Amino acid sequence: MTDRLSELTAAGVAVWLDDLSRVRLSSGGLDQLRREKHVVGVTTNPTIFAKALADADEYDWQLRDLATRGVEVEEAVRMLTTYDVRWACDVMRPSHDGSQGVDGRVSIEVDPRLAHETDKTVAEAKALWWLVDRPNLFIKIPATEAGLPAITATLAEGISVNVTLIFGLDRYSQVMEAFLAGLEQARANGHDLSKIGSVASFFVSRVDSEVDKRLEKIGSAEAKALRGKAAVANAQLAYERYGEVFSSDRWQALADAGAHPQRPLWASTSTKNPDYRDVIYVEELIAPGTVNTMPESVIHAYADHGETRADTITGAYDAARGVFTDLESVGVDMSDVIATLEREGVEKFEASWLELLDGVRKSLAAAGRGTGRPGQAAEGNAQAAQHAGGNA
After folding, report:
1. For 184-217, how does the pLDDT look when each residue is reduced to its tens digit (9 = 90+)?
2. At what angle do helices 334-368 and 60-69 cross, to 10 degrees?
């Protein structure tokens, strides 16, 4: 049988999983994806954690311990989520070691309510780095205006960063500038640049969702003919900018000091429109030195029927620019699209974070009333103790 995910990997795309839960960890499911589906990284976000904690009983024993200690809900959330991320880092460690530190990364996001507060973002990034205490961790920082200096400051501390919620080309250029400045400061601070990693998470399908909505509203034949084209074109032009920055003399000086490039990561790669091919945001975004983080459903879909073609990006720049020209000609304001998506992206993650806090608050209250499941406490402790690092 054709190993399509192996072909994708050979084409230069690192396959990451966009999901994490304690069930996935305790069942061995994550390790199975690493061994059998070429998964070499994991991304998380507040929405993923809210769903994981709402759906699983495997957190009961830890919730009881936290309730007994009387911890505040925000501390409890950090203990629960960093526990899972630390465990995932241990599962992915073979991929990390085998890639000389490039892959095998697991991401955890700073509190999205801090998206517009630089100093607090940096402080929390440092706290999360200390809590998880694994070399293959990524701290996710949103690419807001306040996030940009936080990215630089965090990298300057020798902390690896996944820059998230990137939608537009100009903001992406600012993200790469923040990365270069951060590494330059890290080098001045005496950090080993070979130990610092970074990816820039460029969101894909949400661009089509917003643009298609506007095209439908315009309603002309010319407008409707452009549906489903904006997201791929946007990402392709982002890769063009990546190539320009990471072939510069400024970058070469950092590379000579041992630095790894900040790879583009294609996020939000499940199709939101059922009329589109379910693996379109993988097939159309194949190029060396990229990451594609996918829900498990997309990983299995690609393994089943994905078509790997060598580099579907670098030869498409002119066509991608043509898509942007056509969008402008029918009345789509891409600058407004990008501003809307960034604002809504932060708002959605804030809402998920509040949902997560509320769910943990209720679970702590229930655990405090003795409604946990004693039989699972010992089992959960036994399975996870080697990954806990004292973080109960």
Report:
1. 999 999 999 999 999 999 999 999 999 999 999 9
2. 70
Q: What is the 3-state secondary structure (H, E, C) of 218-287?
A: HCCHHHHCCCCCHHHHHHHHHHHHHHHHCCCHHHHHHHHCCCCCCEEEEECCCCCCCCCCCCHHHHCCCC
- Residue matched to tokens 């507040």: 46
The residue to which tokens 């839960």 are assigned: 21
Give the position of tokens 């991929």.
95
User: Rounded distance, CA 63 to CA 80, Å?
Assistant: 8
Burial (Cβ within 10 Å: 0-12, 13-18, ≥19) of residue 366: middle
For residues 279 and 297, what is the distance between their CA atoms, to the nearest angstrom? 10
pLDDT in tens, 114-170: 999 999 999 999 999 999 999 999 999 999 999 999 999 999 999 999 999 999 999
- Displacement of CA 263 from its chain's centroid (Å): 12
Closest residue by Cα to residue 23 from 88, 76, 118: 88
Q: Name the residue ranges covered by the structural domains of the chain.
A: 4-378
Which has the closest alpha carbon to 284: 315, 242, 313?
313
Contacts of range 244-248, beta carbons closer than 8 Å, 24 or more positions apart: 245/173, 245/176, 245/180
Domain 4-378 homologous superfamily, CATH:
Aldolase class I (3.20.20.70)
Token pair recorded at residue 298? 């997309």
- Size (the chain), residues: 392
Q: How far apart are CA 127 and CA 132, in angstroms?
A: 9
Full-model pTM: 0.93
Angle at 128 between CA 122 and CA 134, to 5 degrees: 125
Catalytic residue among 37, 140, 195, 213, which?
A: 140
Any catalytic annotation for residue 120?
no
Q: How is residue 126 written in tokens?
A: 């440092």
DSSP 310-377: S-SSGGGHHHHHHHHHHHHHHT--HHHHHHHHHHHHHHHHHHHHHHHHHHHHHHHHHHHTT-S-HHHH
Residue pair 208/136 in contact by the 8 Å Cβ criterion: no
